[in-house]
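Example record used in the benchmark description.
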Amino acid sequence: MKKIALYGFNNLTKTLSFNIYDICYAETRQERKDYLVYIDEQYNSTRLTKILTEVTTIIGASVLNIAKQDYDPQGASVTMLISEESIEDHLLDKTCNVAVIEDIIQPETIVAHLDKSHVTVHTYPEYHPDNQISTFRVDIDVSTCGKISPLKALDYLIGSFDSDIITIDYRVRGFTRNVEGKKFFIDHGISSIQNFIDKETLKRYESVDVNVFQSNIFHTKMMLKEMDLDNYLFKKNPKDLEDHIKKAIKLNIKEEMTEIFNGTNIYHLNDED
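Model output (structure tokens):
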């Protein structure tokens, strides 16, 4: 889209909701508990903060404030306030966490709170005590105000996690005006979220789009096509398993992925027993 000569500030709010699911087969209850411990170590609040910091850099924003928390028994959350442009230190609110976290954010990146922009992440590791499947879900929301767009970070986010299933929502709200006073309800061209995902990545997934163009609402969901058991077995080697067991595990994992992808339970005749 041709660059718009604006009157005042760009008031459009662009929000990206990015959700991934990672599926794991853990046979015993102890293995499932150990899997949750492993996930908590791999995706603790410190690592998630590093990921969100990189997202902020990719979209061209600056970190203002960070709040992070690890939970008991599992899970973590990180919230960042971000700004489109930096500003002098004397304009900072000194009562806030000013984005100084050792080895992640250095003091020179501190900015003041100018924009209604933020990045958040929450993790949801879970398993069922009577099922061998464990699921790790990550929810990331990137909301920006101004010229910066969260869509630039999609490829990085997909690559940052073991993404078996991905659901992405993107919407633009509000309006901005040009110098003649004409309203613009979107300031960039988009026909699908998939336009902003690497083509080689898309080849690895089954993808479905649901878009409401007149409302600037875009939705894409993706499910990994190929299944390599090496990537799904926790504390087990596929070479040690008989073929019929490997087949049963694959069917179990595929069913879990299909239910999550379609948002519905698969019906079985024995469910009525």
